[in-house]
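User: Last request for today: this protein with uridine-5'-diphosphate, please.
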Amino acid sequence: MGADQHIVMLPFMAHGHLIPFLALARQIQERSGFKITIANTPLNVQYLRSTISKTSTNSNIHLAELSFSSTQHGLPPNTENTENISLSEMSKFFHASSSLEAPLRQLVSDITNQEGRPPLCIISDVFFGWAVNVANSLGTKIISFTTCGAYGTMAYVSLWLNLPHRSTDSDEFHVPGFPENHRFHRSLLHKFLNDADGTDVWSKYFQPQILLSIKSDGWLCNTVEEIEPLGLEILRKYIGVPVWTIGPLLPPSALKKSSSSDSSISIHGAGKEPGMAAEKIVKWLDLQEEYSVVYISFGSQNTISETPTMALARGLEASGKPFIWVIRPPLGFDINGEFKAEWLPEGFEERMKESKRGLLVRNWAPQLEILSHKSVGVFLSHCGWNSVLESLSQGVPIIGWPMAAEQSYNSKMLMEEMGVNVELTRRVESVISWMEVKKVIEMVMNREGKGKEMKKKAAEISEKIRRAKTEEGEEQGSSVFALDEFLRTTSSTKRQFSFR
Ligand code: UDP
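Assistant: Here's the final one, the structure of the complex with uridine-5'-diphosphate:
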């Protein structure tokens, strides 16, 4: 495996994809010394550049701008990331992303001309099945990278391809590829999927893209062999190409054993400015008891409605537990606008501040730093896969509030397969009562019963995750092995890959 190889990477334009792609680029680079070029639209390249410059020196990771004009697709100017898009315009954005095909083709051709041979491979987001055509026509290999877990990916792939809920009136149904006795409930489906019939805008995007991605030379999956046995077994069987489990794509410092607070994890998603300095948050966490804090965040782009915002605040206050809550304006308001006091119970923020009971962090928090602190006891999360891995890697159990994408399948798997999650509710527009919030928090944070069991299971998973990333010697972890195996197989001249 020569170190003079070049890999081109193409993430989907969302923070939940850019962050693990960048982490993957770093790990490939460290392991192989290969040159990496991450290609994306200009504003996302800007974000990646600022993240890279804050966190590394001497990197052989390069960035390439692919031209993209959102207005040409009927989107507002400078719309290049899902974080700026309303749900009603999301399908337009997905379809518009296919216009990156021509600039990607140009980039790969330019690299081929400059270097006298095509890049070793393109690692493209699983959402960009069209990259398979680019790679095939330019004589390079193509690997699809799913930033989701194996179970969530399998559910998303099979649900979109088969639309099994269309052939039954029942609320519960079987999803092809899953074991016969495994049932999905209709309420797990996002409205877009529930309404899909194969002719709608979403089916028209996902079905061809998934079918193309299945034709790639192999898949990389941001998970760990030992924590998702079912998901991996069925995904491999269903798509029929190798699946290398190279997760979790977290900074190595996040996987070090540490029994105290660790403020060295200052790297993840660093291109975005947090609403409160990490040092201030860590200082506050240092004052709290071990496993006592509830951390609440709904990922990089979600928010909840006004009424549940109130209920969540009341439930948190009534629970008596300390908390850190990443707040954004509720649904229907400008998500990047100012957060107004009227969206919370009267005097809430002042009361929490005076009593040092809670921290409200506006818009963006240093999530991994928070989760890695020993004071954090539970994560109230939308179950985005990065958040799930970040939480489990630190042994923190989850209270689920899945909202979109594959989050509800993740939440189901976390409950049924892993036993580390209690779902508070489902869907972005969901209505909850403060009493329910209080009850669930108390149950999960209880040091006896269900809470104790969840904590124990989360700690076991955290250990498996750490082991999977062990680098050298006889004890080499499964994720390190899989990454090496992927690099070895891809570097070999044959296009036929073998399974692990
Ligand atoms: N994130 C963060 N601070 C925030 C919100 C999100 O650092 O305030 C990071 C989080 O650590 C994770 C990513 O953004 O790495 C969100 O990805 P995830 O898959 O959890 O959810 P998505 O945003 O894709 O829905």
